[in-house]
Amino acid sequence: MEITEKSNRRKTGLIILSMSLFMFSPILTHLIGYKIPMFENLGLSSGTFASAIAWILAIVLTVSYVTYTFKVVPFVYQKQREISLFKMVGLLTIVGGILEEVVFRRWLMDLLMKLGYGAAIQIIVSGLVFGLIHISWGLFSKEKQFLKGAFIATTFLGFGLAIVYIVGNRNIGPCIIAHSIINIVIEPWLMLAAISKTWKLKEE
After folding, report:
1. Does residue 202 fall inside a structural domain?
2. pTM exceeding the 0.85 threshold for the entire prediction
3. Is residue 204 part of a domain?
């Protein structure tokens, strides 16, 4: 492995570790006893599962988004066969799947509902804010095309997760699982592709 590639992996790994520790802090606070209402009943325990249709939609969304990412960023697909410490570090991205769903779906959409906005507005706002936050992918690559692609793709993912949340009668469980799987499969490689500027490379 070349020095530059090792450096890019180290940089990406540190970013993932830093982001995961930051996002885990409110979850840890909740777990040690300082209860945060948003983290109560995540829909993953017995008797709190969402309807079957919500889980089916979550599965379809997950498979579709991962497949789309493999197609538009071949580097991410190419690296799926790799077994490495870097890939293990990528497992930390599950934290983002939990926290982001609690914030962008449960907190934001429920807030909009309390303010009197209907499901359509909740879905649109949740998706757009989700996409804007993920513009950071483009900032890593410093390329407008990647920034634009990251915004569009994550905005539509946000729309999809918001729909799953509504269909599941505002049960956050399917959204957390879908988002976490997507993160584990593509996020570390997508971030590495942005930093190393290998996102355009085709599989040999």
Report:
1. no
2. yes
3. no
Compute the distance between CA of residue 7 and CA of residue 98 in angstroms, rounded to an integer: 29
Full DSSP string of 56-110: HHHHHHHHHHHHHHHHH-HHHHHGGG--SHHHHHGGGGHHHHHHHHIIIIIIHHH
Element containing residue 46 per DSSP (H, E)? none
Number of domains in the chain: 1
- Chain segment 171-186, per-residue pLDDT in tens: 999 999 999 999 999 9
Buried b (16+ CB within 10 A) or exposed e, 12-35: bbebbeebbeebbebeeebeeeee
| Token output for 169 | 């009668």
The torsion defined by the Cα of 170, 134, 178 and 128, in degrees rounded to 10, comes to 40
Residue range of the domain that includes 37: 3-196
